[in-house]
Amino acid sequence: MKTSRAIRAAMIVAASAAATAQLPVAWKNWQYSAPIDAGATDAARYVSLVLPVGVMTHAARGLGDLRVIDDQGKEVPYALTARLGGRATDQRAATLLEPSVVAGQYSQAMFDLGKGTRVHNVIKIDIDGQDEFMTWVEAAVGDDHEHWRVVRERAPIYRLAQPAEAHTTIEYPESVSRYLRVRILDGSRPYHIAGGRVIHEVVTEAERVPAGVTLTASPAAGATSVWTADAPPLPISEARFATDQNAFYRPVSLEASDDGEHWVYAASGEIYRTVEHGQPREALSVQFPEREAAHWRVTVHNRNDAPLGGMTVELWTTPRRVILRQEPGRTYQLLYGNSRVGAPQYDLVRLIDPGSVASASAATLGAEIANSGYANPAPWTEQHQSVMWIALALAVIVIGGLAVRTLRGPASEKASGR
User: Fold this and answer.
1) Using one digit for the tens of pLDDT, what is the confidence trace for 239-253?
2) Cβ atoms of residues 324 and 46 within 8 Å
């Protein structure tokens, strides 16, 4: 029994030692460190380390306080990268032809992209005279005015008054056909297609991981379903949705706030699940440029439909990668948690080529270790604000007392007839 207790005590001591360790004096102003496991190497090479979400929440905003040191305590240059993805667009000349309406069936327009048409895959149409709508569009291509090939059977478009949002962009497979036809598949009223911009868009997918943010659904759900969340300082760039409903189409909006009271627009889009050409088709995410905020609000616009069944929402972030040059026989640590330093400037950022980044060997980060010798770099006045406020209050009392005595002196002398 005594032996088992001794073993347990030894394990607790070992765990405590692993959770805290003292960094070299030169790095005493960093709160946290974590060992980098890059494996053994016989020759110098580049290694790539994906920063866990936990590091991004404890590090300074913008990650300017990240430092890498080796087993001798020397600073090691690194490059900070992220696979953000993006969209490259190239507009095509397009002439609007023959807008028309077939009563009770559809409204349509054709576009002529001219001879020697270059590849295209997106059109954004301009619709006049409609305050609000939510409907579907068919896109077809052809080499003449009579023979058409449908390339997108049902693409969603909408315009909302509250909130003021619109989406009239139709994506379809790449084509080099000269003519493009769009049909708004709502025969209940005519739509005036006033024009359109045809483009070729190349999308590079971003790397994303769950941000670990808990979203709470509002108890009442009617025309809208709303989720809110308090978020760590992470750059959010996507919202993903899940639902067990088979067929639906809902606009979505995202808002951000720093204080939980004043909200600003962050993104909008649509989620849907339908069937095209006999095949299921769905879109269950909204992607947008990165944004950091302390609070997030996600709204699904149900309008007159019932809320989607079993709906959940998750926010995603693009992880950052640390690229460093590993030397044989050396070990490394990542340091973070010092808001008083600026981002480092290394030649490596300008010298490393994209091929080396892409081929870098994978490294992993060990458990976070608190710096037992941590020295807060903030000025004494910032660290002891309560003491400063007390001193200020005492100073005000003393000065006030002296002022009262000064004023009473002449008044007392006058009253005594002096």
Assistant:
1) 999 999 999 999 999
2) yes
CB-facing half-sphere around the CA of 210: CA atoms within 13 A: 7
395 burial class (0-12, 13-18, 19+ CB within 10 angstroms)? exposed
Write out the H or E segment, with its range, that includes residue 19: helix 2-19
| 56 in Cβ contact with 63 (< 8 Å) | yes
Residue 405 falls inside a structural domain: no
Q: How far, in Å, CA of 42 to CA of 52, rounded?
A: 27
Rounded CA separation 329/336 (Å): 24
Q: What is the pTM of this model?
A: 0.72
Nearest of 252, 104, 96, 255 to residue 179 by alpha carbon: 96
User: Do residue 95 and residue 146 come from a single domain?
Assistant: yes
Report how far apart, in Å, the C-alpha atoms of 323 and of each of 76, 78, 84, 297, 359 are. 11, 5, 16, 34, 11
The Cα angle at residue 42 between residues 37 and 47, in degrees rounded to 5:
40
User: What's the CA gap between 344 and 342, in Å, rounded?
Assistant: 6
Residues across the chain: 418
Q: Are strands 86-92 and 192-204 parallel, antiparallel or unpaired?
A: antiparallel
| CATH code of the domain containing 302 | 2.60.120.260
How many domains in the chain? 3
Domain that holds residue 306: 209-317
Asked if residue 308 and residue 352 are part of one domain, the reply reads no
Looking at the DSSP assignment, which residues form a beta bridge with residue 109? 182
Per-residue model confidence as pLDDT tens digits over 41-63:
999 999 999 999 889 889 998 89
